[in-house]
Every structure is written in C-alpha cells, then in structure tokens.
Automatic annotation (TrEMBL):
<keyword id="KW-0472">Membrane</keyword>
<keyword id="KW-1003">Cell membrane</keyword>
<keyword id="KW-0716">Sensory transduction</keyword>
<dbReference type="InterPro" id="IPR000725">
    <property type="entry name" value="Olfact_rcpt"/>
</dbReference>
<dbReference type="GO" id="GO:0004984">
    <property type="term" value="F:olfactory receptor activity"/>
</dbReference>
<feature type="transmembrane region" description="Helical">
    <location>
        <begin position="236"/>
        <end position="258"/>
    </location>
</feature>
<feature type="transmembrane region" description="Helical">
    <location>
        <begin position="138"/>
        <end position="156"/>
    </location>
</feature>
<feature type="transmembrane region" description="Helical">
    <location>
        <begin position="25"/>
        <end position="48"/>
    </location>
</feature>
<dbReference type="InterPro" id="IPR017452">
    <property type="entry name" value="GPCR_Rhodpsn_7TM"/>
</dbReference>
<feature type="transmembrane region" description="Helical">
    <location>
        <begin position="60"/>
        <end position="80"/>
    </location>
</feature>
<dbReference type="InterPro" id="IPR050516">
    <property type="entry name" value="Olfactory_GPCR"/>
</dbReference>
<dbReference type="InterPro" id="IPR000276">
    <property type="entry name" value="GPCR_Rhodpsn"/>
</dbReference>
<keyword id="KW-0807">Transducer</keyword>
<feature type="transmembrane region" description="Helical">
    <location>
        <begin position="270"/>
        <end position="290"/>
    </location>
</feature>
<feature type="transmembrane region" description="Helical">
    <location>
        <begin position="201"/>
        <end position="224"/>
    </location>
</feature>
<keyword id="KW-0675">Receptor</keyword>
<protein>
    <recommendedName>
        <fullName>Olfactory receptor</fullName>
    </recommendedName>
</protein>
Length: 318
C-alpha cells in the first residue's frame, strides 16, 4: 500500500517559462508527434508487408519502431493537452504511471540497441551461420527478454519512488515525469532509490554501451579484412543507421545522467530529456529509411501498389 503524501499533484515547468509561445509549441509538438507516428508506422507496415524484409535485422527494427511510438505516446498527449488547456499540473498517480512507462521504454531501448548490435556482429563476423544463430526462436526470445527486463527494471525503479513522502515543493522542471527529478523532491533521504538508479544506470547504460562498442570493434576488424571495397561499403552501410541512433541516444543519456551533479542545469536537463524522448523518436525512422534502400524500395512499391488499386477502383466506378 502506497504511503499517503501531502503532495497530490505536481507542476511540470518545462514550458511554463514561455507562456507567450504556447500556441507555437502546440503546433510544433503536434507536428513532431504526428511525424513520429507516421514514420514509425510506415516502417512497421513496410517490414510486415514485404517478404524481402522478413529478416532478423528488420524484425528488431520493427520492435524499435513500436518502442518509439510508445515512447512519445507516453509523454506527447499530455504535453499537447497541457498546452491546449494552459495547465501544467499532473496528479501524483498520473505522474507515477508516466514515470513507470517512461522507464520501461528507456530500458527496452538500451537493450534493443544492444541486441541490434549483436545481430550486426553475427551478420558480418559469422555470415555463413547468420540464419542459424539468429533463427526465429532466438529473435523472439531476445525481443521478449528486452521487454521483460524493461518491465522488471521499471517496477524496481518506480515502485520505491511511489513510496517516498512528498511534502513540497512539487515543481518538476521537465515536460513530463521522470525518476530523477521526483527523487529530488522527496522529504526523506532516498538512499534505496539512489542505489537502484545507480545499479540500473551501470547495467542498462554503461554495460550495454560497452557490449555495443565491443561488437563494433569486431565488426570494424571484420570489415577491414574484406578484400572488396564494394563489400566493405555494403557491410558498413548496414551498420551506419544503427551507429547513428546509438550515438544520438547514448550521447543524450550520458550527458543527462553521467555528468557531475555540480554541472547540472535545470534548463539543460529539460532540453536533453526532450531530445532523447521526443526528437530522437522522430529522427529514427528518417535515419533508417533514408539510409536504407530496401526500406525505401518497399515503401515505394507499397505506395505504387495502393495508388494503382485506388486508380482502378476509381475508373471502375466512373
């Protein structure tokens, strides 16, 4: 049973300093949200409808796209509603729920990017056994493991936060609720929460990043050993999108959580949290589709097919 707290709602101050730009922010975030939904949905449809994309790499990419849709849907609707109604309050229950779901998605993304790096490692370093090692059961198991660990870590991280006493202040200098600012608002010393958060950051942040870097050390060595320049280019191109996404996502996380607390800035924290929770989900489908000829080809074929069907249907009804 949750402890009773004096604070029953929190104030999200991420955009409160710009009251004269509420309409502009609403339009901007609505466009970003729609772009995220459209871009990631198109990637999921392209992979589901094209038999040529039924491979482990695209299976994990579709999981990543589903994750990005979840990521923004946790925060964006409330941000848009707050801007529309000119209100920045959120109930403690809604704040804790948002924190739980956000932590879940952040954990799954760290693990999914690690699994995708392993997939590229097997594809380039052991290509003859790729479809044996990365068979359907293995891929499903790895994806399930990512989501299960995300749920488990989110419960372990968020539940103790709901038990903390909050007696004021209740201001969070973000656009949505996260564990880090909530812990800072607690009346008591959140010693357990700090230990759990540090353990999570070490395992899902640092350890996963080390595994990704090790994978790319072996991948780079394998690519450099290739005799054909065309083969090297093709091998690198299959990794380029993943490397870009990893650099953006982990770069933001490292800046956010691993820099000294003395250099912390509320305005900068809010900006960086916006980057990895709102901007990166918009960029991911662009990065993967623009740099991937197979995804672009599948989308073009699907679009042409539906246009032809629509044209035929229109001509028959004339």
């Amino acid at each position: 049973m949750l402890n009773e707290t004096a604070v029953t709602e929190f104030l999200l101050l991420g955009l409160s300093k710009y009251p004269h730009l509420q309409s502009e922010f609403f339009v901007l975030f609505l466009i970003l949200y729609l772009m995220t939904l459209l871009g990631n949905t198109l990637i999921i449809i392209a992979i589901a409808m094209d038999s040529h994309l039924q491979t482990p790499m695209y299976f994990f990419l579709s999981n990543l796209s589903i994750l990005e849709i979840c990521y923004t849907s946790i925060t964006m609707p409330y941000i848009l509603m707050s801007l529309l109604m000119n209100s920045n309050t959120i109930s403690s229950a809604a704040c804790f729920a948002q924190t739980y779901l956000f932590t879940l998605c952040a954990t799954v993304e760290c693990l999914m990017l690690t699994v995708m790096a392993y997939d590229r490692y097997v594809a380039i370093c052991d290509p003859l056994r790729y479809m044996i090692v990365m068979n359907k059961q293995v891929c499903l198991g790895l994806a399930a493991m990512c989501w299960f660990c995300g749920i488990l870590n989110s419960v372990l991280q968020t539940y103790p936060v709901t038990l903390l006493p909050y007696c004021g202040p209740n201001e969070i200098d973000r656009m949505y609720c996260e564990i880090q600012p909530l812990v800072k608002l607690s009346c008591n010393d959140p010693y357990l929460n700090k230990i759990l958060r540090s353990g999570s950051a070490i395992f899902f942040g640092i350890f996963c990043l080390i595994l990704i870097l090790i994978s790319y050390v072996y991948i780079t060595a394998a690519i450099l050993r290739m005799n054909s320049a065309e083969g090297r280019h093709k091998a690198f191109s299959t990794c380029a999108s993943h490397i870009t996404v990893v650099a953006l996502y982990y770069g933001a996380l490292i800046f956010m959580y691993l820099r000294p607390s003395s250099s912390s800035s509320h305005k900068m924290d809010s900006l960086v949290s916006t980057l990895y929770s709102i901007v990166i989900p918009v960029l991911n489908p662009m990065i993967y589709s623009l740099r991937n000829k197979e995804v672009k080809g599948s989308l073009k074929r699907g679009l042409k097919k539906h246009v032809l069907v629509a044209c035929k249907g229109f001509s028959l009804h004339k």
